[in-house]
Design a protein that fits this description.
The chain is mostly helical and 219 residues long. Helix content is 83%, strand content 0%. The longest helix is centred in the N-terminal third of the chain and has 65 residues.
């Protein structure tokens, strides 16, 4: 076989290898992007359910605050829960907006940055949501009045009420600790993935799919 024939054969094989690599890469990209889309659709469903629930909760708490606002403890309890519910609903709405804005035709590094930002958005509202812990007694006040028509502060045993006050005070440092632990710097920790399970873990799964594409592209 002549040298020129060998060169032509080599070029032909090299071209075929490149075409095979391009085809395999496109197949992997399409498959993994579809998986990422599916996982983010799951997160969007969670966010939509959260949005609907907390809008309904916010409307009720606002109604409660207006209805019983002439009494300070009812107004404060209803107000705190209204702000909390509205904040959670706003977080769900921001998540839905971020998910819908993702363009899967963009380069993988850009998609990865958007997903990392989305993960921080999810974490941010979990952190904010944790601040309701010291105000748990607001649920008791609103719950007893709403369900039984009872003013728990008026009929509650004084010792029991003092215990609740002590628990509230004890919850303040606990909440501060939780808030600090739920920091973006810990977002990739194994325990954080458990916290985000079902409400943020979909982003981690999507990032893994994108990482596979990136590895193949660099190989």
């Amino acid at each position: 076989m002549e040298l020129d024939d060998l060169k032509n054969l080599w070029r032909e094989q090299e071209k075929q290898l490149q075409e095979n690599w391009a085809l395999n890469f496109e197949l992997l990209r399409t498959l993994n992007l579809d998986k990422a889309k599916s996982r983010l659709k799951s997160l969007a469903r969670v966010a939509m359910t959260t949005l609907i629930f907390y809008i309904a909760a916010a409307l009720y708490f606002i109604y409660f605050t207006i209805e019983y606002g002439t009494e300070l403890h009812f107004a404060l309890a209803g107000g705190v829960l209204s702000v909390w519910a509205i904040t959670i609903a706003a977080g769900a709405m921001q998540q839905l907006g971020s998910i819908s804005a993702i363009d899967y035709s963009e380069p993988i590094p850009i998609l990865q940055r958007k997903l990392e930002l989305l993960k921080i958005i999810v974490l941010r509202y979990i952190r904010i949501g944790a601040w309701i812990i010291p105000f748990y007694f607001s649920f008791i006040i609103v719950g007893f009045k709403s369900l039984f028509g009872v003013d728990i502060l008026s009929v509650g045993d004084s010792t029991w009420l003092m215990v609740q006050a002590g628990i509230t005070l004890a919850f303040i440092p606990l909440t501060i600790w939780i808030y600090r632990k739920l920091s973006p710097k810990n977002i990739d920790a194994a325990w954080m993935q458990k916290v985000l399970k079902g409400n943020g873990s979909q982003i981690t799964d999507s990032l893994i799919f994108l990482k596979d594409i990136e590895r193949f592209e660099m190989s």
